[in-house]
Structure prediction request, 183 residues.
Amino acid sequence: MVPERFRLLDEARRSLPDGYKVELSGDLLVMQAPPSPIHQLNLSIVQRQFEAHCPQGYFATGNSDLSSPKAGAVRNPDLTYLPEDVIELDGHDIPADLALIAVEVASPSNPENDWTGKVRDYPRMGFPLYLIIDPRQATVTLFSEPNRDRYHTRTEWEFGETIHIPEPFDFELDLARLVPYRE
Prediction:
């Protein structure tokens, strides 16, 4: 993306009112309302397990703006892990390629953002792992091995199973307590 175009779109993104999660994907601004309690519970269940396996020198953060001008995207995952020295960077946006993983809980109102837009953007932005918790389908999907514009590996499990999260976390993620959305 042309740097000036990215700057203008990002400026428009920042000028929108507080209270919404606003992301930039190419020429689109993506806005979402605050998450539901089921969304937050599932995210908390997963985050607690990741915390025990967080690599030294990294910390968990949610809804931080992660930027990739080259990919023309600013995304803010529900959960990611960043190096502690990121606090030394100037500005609000953090280079996306510093993140170890993006974890998202699919929204019942806009699942296409997680399943299409982010599956497209995250490998371009340099996320080595992308984990989608989808309470609509009671599944968890891990994308890995990014190569430019796509992930080469996709593995899927159902709520109740246990899955292996690869390095740098390297642990078994227990999906037994995850809760599906109610219709």
